[in-house]
Amino acid sequence: MEYTRLGSGGPVISRVAYGNSLTAGNQVDEATAHACVRTALDAGITVFDTADVYAEGRGEEVLGRALSGVARESVVICTKVGRGAPAGVRPLSREHVLASADASLRRLGTDHIDLYQAHLYDPATPLEETADAFSELVRAGKVRYVGVSEWAADEIEAFAALDLPLVSNQPQYSMLWRVPQTEVVPACEPLGIGQLAWSPLAGGVLTGKYLPGAYPPLGSRLADARGGDVSLNRFRFLAPEVLDRVALLARATADTGLTLPQLALAWVLGRPGVSAAVTGASSPQQLTANLRAVGARLDEAVRATVDDLLGPVIVTDPRLTLSRMARQRAIGGPSSTGAPAPTGSPSPIGGPVTPSPTDAPVPPVPPVASPEVSA
After folding, report:
1. Which end of the chain has fewer CB atoms < 10 Å from its terminal CB, N or C?
2. pLDDT value of position 196
3. Residue 54 falls in the annotated catalytic set
4. Catalytically annotated residue among 3, 18, 54, 121
5. What is the pTM for the complete model shown?
């Protein structure tokens, strides 16, 4: 494992963080979740990321039990507040932030949160009120460091201008989804804010396991995780042209000595401003295999191949930062609603898209040209 400082003033962390957004309390049983955490610890991972909304709080509970007995100062526990607030409650209001922090501490079974992250910007709450709430938690010893997740560049700059040191932002970032690199990363660098890149494997699409028209393999988030189809379809990662391009890339980079998921993880870890990549796993074996990416350095030829083959399906538009989309919705822009994800047998890939049950809007990713794929 490799280690670095989170931003310019945060804790020293492992370059890979273990996250449980769709696994613990959802896709995998508790025994498997605990085994994954033990594997992460054995591999030298020190950062564990969750949120109060993951599996309706069960993500925090399972993580807390899995880390029970581990020396508290040897790990960096990260969680979030600001999504899934009850109707009529401002997600980043002082009252909600303070109450949610106490609830997260109980579920995690700890006396402090190492990194508390504002999960999406809240246009209904003045930034000063949110900053005061986080500062109060720091003074009380309940929180050590403060970050944000999926905030737009202007939101981060405005928050950082207040008397509250920010050490991190957590954006979605992968070879396919490069939205942060145009505005967010350049805004964060002079502020000393590091990036914790979530979904570096694009929800599993950059493993090559999903094929157009085929049923998703057993054990995948698309097959087993409630809401797994939403997390993939809302970013259009399952479009046939995307999957075709990913298959092309897998064949073209087969001689690098890296599997496709290792290549994808190494690519993210090599991006400017990225302190760590947040990745989950449905089994200890999957996590062990993917961690072989740590320390890999991609040469210019490999990076050029990635850009050339994925080029038509790479997304870079900064307007697709989730907080910016949510802000647009708040002032009367388009929003998304829908029913919970269905249970039972999944549909073939490329079939009907399940409406999103989340409170985040669905980004209107523009269509792309279909690649020419040789047999």
Report:
1. C
2. 98
3. yes
4. 54
5. 0.83
